[in-house]
């Protein structure tokens, strides 16, 4: 049950001063709370014997008020310490979780659903934080505070009455153990169901246009209703067990009251106990109700926190498929990119995706990559991004194997525009500045002109400050591509990778962008994959891929003379272009 505290030992060591002060003051407050019932009992005995005076009554009242003020002050401090630690661990774990996700490669996200990751980053981390705050409170109150009250009842009042009153308490511990095990199992299932629901919501929101286009709103509503019903049932199963805690504790605490009252009256009649001591004892017994509840809350919280921490650690313990080299080799600049008999296969693929690639690109050259759909164009370009473990053969930059170059240095050279553009829910300006944080408006406009987006910018309601919406929903496909291009251009990368990044723009706009690239990226390396051959006619070298192999390569003119797939595709596109014109 307490494995969650063991797994969080690193945090308690780090914040040991905070928790030492908080827990000590919590115990001191518990001891101080014993004073008012004892003072009240003494006052009742004085009244019963007729020895009470105005001065002694005033003394009792003043002492009780002083104790209450003291308890108030130290309670403020221990609550600030303990519950402040709860917020702190949540922030630390959430930061660690997010940083871990940012370091993960595509295979990780292929294995884990976004909705489930969101559930772990929200609900599960909140449960862990509750364990560190409220959990530590219940742990202290159900052990130290309970012990303090028990000792006070035994030594200050009557050990006989105390032993009789605690007879029902072992049954509480037995019930809590049974309930705790069931809570752990059911809460884990409930959190998994919550992750499924998150995933369904994300899919529905991101695919709302397709859902409406195919008139699937009612089906999607039914699917969501089914999944929320599953979440409801599993959370209800948790709540049913959770509901047993309080009645069980109340039942056995009530039995303790009955025993203490019955046996206490017997002791009073036999002059083994005074009336004031019996009143004090019953007040102490009333103070034991919360520690008894705390036992149930403790088990509940620890089981929930343990289940949640297991889910969070399951994610945090996954190591990235691609990691920084232990001893990275420093490279001044990417002078050459060379594939030497390079072969690659995706982890989930049953076929070889790239096979025996032999290719060299010098600094300042433009490489065109063409081929049929699924031929391996994107796969080839992505090898420079190191999203997957390296394949066999060699892939070197300036003669250094790519897996020996620090990832930060590698990424600092690269500007990447993928097939599916990702824009953030911010303004056009902020999306472009993502490539160069401190870029001025003048620099931004230069990147926009390079991406041939200046005329479209004039049509937007707030110009550079226009919000693009989630994933750029407010922009057309071509506009999103050009904003993505501007974001890459503004960084002025040594290596620019355009992965079919001009597919949504018309031929005239494409020609402008290509001309701008040729002019403004002189002396820098550019790699372009495309289906439209007009985008790579100017390239220094062009390769044609088919089933992961290079079947043709050369300049535009050489490939036309070769008479293979490139010539066939070029002629077809020329005919289509003439018909369009």
UniProtKB/TrEMBL annotation:
Membrane topology recorded in Swiss-Prot or TrEMBL: Multi-pass membrane protein
Subcellular location, principal: membrane
Record GO cellular component, one term: plasma membrane
Entry's transmembrane regions: 58-78, 128-151, 157-176, 249-269, 281-301
Keywords: ATP-binding, Cell membrane, Membrane, Nucleotide-binding, Transmembrane, Transmembrane helix, Transport
Location of the ABC transmembrane type-1 domain: 20-304
GO molecular function: ABC-type oligopeptide transporter activity; ATP binding; ATP hydrolysis activity
Superkingdom of this protein's organism: Bacteria
InterPro entries with a match to the protein in the record: AAA+_ATPase (IPR003593), ABC1_TM_dom (IPR011527), ABC1_TM_sf (IPR036640), ABC_transporter-like_ATP-bd (IPR003439), ABC_transporter-like_CS (IPR017871), P-loop_NTPase (IPR027417), Type_1_exporter (IPR039421)
Annotated protein name in UniProt: Multidrug resistance ABC transporter ATP-binding/permease protein YheI
Taxonomic source organism: Paenibacillus apis
